[in-house]
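pinging the channel bc i need a second pair of eyes. not urgent but kinda urgent?? the chain im working w is below, pasted from the shared doc
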Amino acid sequence: MLYFNQFPVIRTTDYQGNSVVVTNILERTELIPSLLNNPLLFYSYNIQDGDTPDTIANKYYADPSRFWIVMYGNQLFDRSGDWPMNSNLFTDYLVDKYTNDTANSLNISANTVSVGQVLAYTQGTTHQYIKTITTTDGYTNNSNTITYYIDSNAYANVVQGTVTKTFTYGVTVTVTTQAYTQSIFEYEEQLNESKRSINLINVSYAGAMENQLQNLLST
């Protein structure tokens, strides 16, 4: 089923004032929010370099035109901004975003900045300071980590280390405090990698989804 072929058409005028019929791509449908938390509806998939919604749909649903099912299942609307970049695109993205900052840091013209200089700048410049406190229950061995984003002054005064406290009946709790910096490169890489884990709607529901989409867009 071709996705955009299901959309209704509307009559409008072109830039010359001629009456034309066009597909109304602004029409919107979405999954019922409660379905997004149904573990029986999805299975996890980790996007690899080279994967696109089309190729994943072809591998799992045996039909590249079902790319929209991949997008729907993850509330993705922008195939460029919502999809993880491969290494080459990621480098291009950094160059496009940080060339001026690199030039300012080196006091040179942005026109003379090289890819290597941008990468060195993003890898060597701190984006944020992070403090984590991990609490471990000595009885159950369960751990819980809380992450704080702090400023440079707070970072300089963090007392790092591990402390164990003993409570009633010999129960112990271990608290570990750590602090570290995250470079611009690490921050951008983390954002990009966070997009790799997606959910694929069970193939057995693909046909029903196509029927539902057709019904919704035909009303």
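so Strands lie at 9-13, 19-23, 42-46, 126-137, 143-150, 161-166, 172-183, 197-201. and The first helix runs from residue 53 to 61. — does that match what u expected or am i reading it wrong
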